[in-house]
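User: Hey, my collaborator sent me this sequence without any context and asked if I could get a structure. I don't really work with proteins. Can you help?
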Amino acid sequence: MIAASTAFIRRSGESIIALPGWRRYLLALLLGVTAAGALPPVYMVPLLVPAFVGLVWLIDGSRDWRRAALAGWWFGLGHFVFGTYWISVALLTDAERFGWMIPFAVLGLSGLQALFPAAAAALTKASRASGLGRIFAFGASWTLVEWLRGMMFTGFPWNLIGTVWSFSDEMIQIASLTGVLGLGLITVTIAAIPAALTDPADEGNPGVRPRRWPVLLGALAALAAVWLFGNLRLASVADAHVAGVTLRIVQPNVPQDQKWRSEVREANFRRQLQLSVGPGHEKVTHVIWPETAAPFFLEREPERRFAIAAVAPRGGLVITGAPRTTANPEQPIRVWNSLQAIDRAGVIIDTYDKHHLVPFGEYLPFRWLLAPLGLDKLAPGDVDFSAGPGPRTLTLPGLPRVSPLICYEVIFSGAVVADGARPGWLLNVTNDAWFGRSSGPYQHFASARMRAVEEGLPLVRAANTGISAVLDAYGRTNAMLDLGEEGVIDAPLPSPTPELTIYARFGVGIPAILVFLTGVLGGLTSHRP
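Assistant: No problem. I've predicted the 3D structure and written it out in C-alpha cell form, which is a compact way to encode the shape of the chain:
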C-alpha cells in the first residue's frame, strides 16, 4: 500500500515538474483556485494539500527564481480572485457609477496581491534547498510574505492561511502563542510535506524515497498536537463574565443601497431606536450599534442625539458608529468614520476615529491623478474620510476599558490594542452590507475570531447586516446573529484571560522567530532523504 502510494505521488510529481510552457501557469492558476476552497465559509482545508504540494513541484520544475515567481504569481491570481471576488458585490451597490470597474478592481487587486505568492515561490527557489529542506523553506517564505502583505501598500492581511481553521475552537487556540501567522506557518508546511516524496535531487537514487513516509506521519502528529493543545487549553477554562454588564447589540440589517437614501434614512434610524428598547431592555446596561448606524453628524444635530439618549439604559450608554465632521462650519470640511458614546443626557462623552482607512472605499489615493479618470471612493459624499490618530483605549462609564475597531481594522494582527493601559475587551463595529450575502462577511468574522484568541480578550461585534456576535477571550461564540438577520443580542460581557497570552506579550516577534527557525531547519534538512 505504501509502495503504491509512493509510486503514484512520485509519478504525479514528476509529471508536474516536467510540465512545459503555458500548461505550468494554467495549473498554477487552478491550484490557487483550489487553495481558495479552504477559506471561510467553505473550509475545505484538505484542499490545501494538493494546492501547496502542486505549487512546490512547479517551483521544483522552474529553471530559475524568475520562472518560479511567475508560477507563484499565477497561483496567487487564482487564489485571490476566488478568495476576494466579493469586491465586485461592493461595486454593484452603485452599479451605474462603479459597475464598469469590477473586472479592473477584482483582477487588479488580485494581481497586486499575487505578487506576494510570487515572492514566496522566488525565495523558495533562490534558497536552493532540496528534499525536505525545500518544504521548510517554502513554509518560511510563504509566512514571511503574508506578514509583508499586511504591511505593504497600506496593508491587506485578508484571508491569511491560518484563518482556514477558524471553524474549530480547538485548532485556533495555538494562535494565543504563535498568532495567526504562526498557525499559517504550521498549516502551509504540513500541507506541503507530501511534496518531499518527490525531489529532482533524488534522480538516480529512488531507494531513499520510501524513507520519507515517516516525515508525513510526523506532519500528521504535529497537526494532532495543535488540536490537543487547543483541547487542553479549553478544558481548563472556567466561563467568567464582567459583573454588572449586559450588552444589547443591535443588528438592523439595512441593505447598503438603502442606507443613505434620504427617503428611507429616517425610517432606518427609527427602526434601530425601536430595536434598542425592545423586550428585555430593562436588563441591559449598554446598547451597541454598528458602523455608521447613525447616518447623521450627531455633534451638529442635537435632536438626533437626544433620540439616541432616550433609548440609553439608566446609568448606561449607546455606543454607535457615526460620521463626524469639523465642529466649526467655517473651518475646511473634514470627515471621520467614528465611534461615539452617548449618555442619557445626549452628551457625546467620548469618540474614536477610524485610523486605518480603506483605499478606494473611504478615500481615493492619488486623487489628483485618478479623479480626472472618472474614479472615486465608494463611500457616499464628496469629501474623503480623514484618518484618526491611531489605536485608542477608551474608558467609558460602567464598562471595562475597551479598544474600538471600526470595520476592517480588526484584520490587523498585533495592531488592535494601543500601547499603555490594557483594555478588557475589543469592540468591532462594521457595515458588511457592502458585501451582500457573499463570502466576505464570513471571512471578516473569521479574522475577528483570531484577534480574540491572540489577545486573550473578548470581542464584541456589531455588524449592520451580520455577522454580529459576542466572542469570549478564546474566540468561542457565546451569542450570534447570522448574516441577513434583523434583531438584537442581549449578552453579558465575557472576561479576558487571567494572564496575557504569549502573543499579546510579544506580538509579531513570535512568528518572526518561528519563520527564522523554520528557515534554519530548511537549511539543515536539505540534501537529506
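In plain terms: The first strand starts at residue 241 and ends at 251. You can pass these C-alpha cells on to your collaborator as they are.
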